[in-house]
Fold this protein.
Amino acid sequence: MTLHKLVVLGDGGVGKTALTIQLCLNHFVETYDPTIEDSYRKQVQIDGQSCMLEVLDTAGQEDYVSLRDQWIRDGDGFVLVYAISSRASFQQLKSFYNQIRRVKEASGSPTFPSSPGGTPGLSPIMLVGNKCDRVTEREVTTQEGSALARELGCDFIEASAKNCVNVEKAFYDVVRQLRRQRQSGGGEGGSSK
């Protein structure tokens, strides 16, 4: 069975753990307890094909920036999370994205193949605007999220871990991209176990 290693990155308090636990354990975590690193596995069926997801829930705090390189090296695909109710978390996305690029380029990762034109391809990244249930607290518009995703060449979705809106889609679409890359011969897209 194919194993896909997905890494969830984003600022502290944006709901990375809530999204991960909603996906893997089907419940919403109300309390905020900063994560250092937690890994969850879940066997899923995506488009009729079984696979194993290994989801790495990471620390958003700046103190753990050195650990982030290793998390990125190990990841096949990425879920970059911000809270729609926090402009500051949205503004941090480019630095997370740039770190993914830098680490994948430096490691010569198979999920970071060079395209025929010589420009590097990038591991699939989904930009997720979490907490879309907090409409009255919104600081980042859907259009802004979509525009940044286009600029970075990522997919984009708004989600709510609390109301279980687009949680599966956020992760499953990364797997779909990994499968497309693998079929077209670009990157590993996951490892067989």
Summary: The chain has one domain: 2-192. The longest strand covers residues 37-46.
